[in-house]
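Most newcomers find our protein records easier to grasp once they have seen one. A learned vocabulary of local backbone shapes supplies the integers on the structure line. Here is such a record, shown just as it appears in the course material:
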Amino acid sequence: VQLQASGGGLVQPGGSLKLSCTASGSFASINSLAWYRQAPGKQRELVGIITLLGGTTYSDSVKGRFTISKDNAKNAWYLEMNSLKPEDTAVYYCKARAYTTNWYDFWGQGTQVTVSS
């Protein structure tokens, strides 16, 4: 399973950005897709997750500002980020739990988001 994250960039505080994560390769199902982020000098942290049935959970730091959605037909997931703050600056990664011969976690390569004026 290959995951491709894209959509990062430079945005001003208060602005918006939408990240995409697309899956390709051979897999039977993807049970969930999570977005993580890692800021310089910090540990990678969970931003939010969406399940196969569309249920979502978010970290407290992004709740109400970020929204995760998916397009099953395209094997694509999205992270819409609004009201961005400088502390949202990080490399954002997507991680899928996919079934190949068993359930495994697969990571995308990361996309940089910088929030700065």
Notes: The CA atoms of residues 37 and 92 lie 4 Å apart. The chain has no helices and eleven strands.
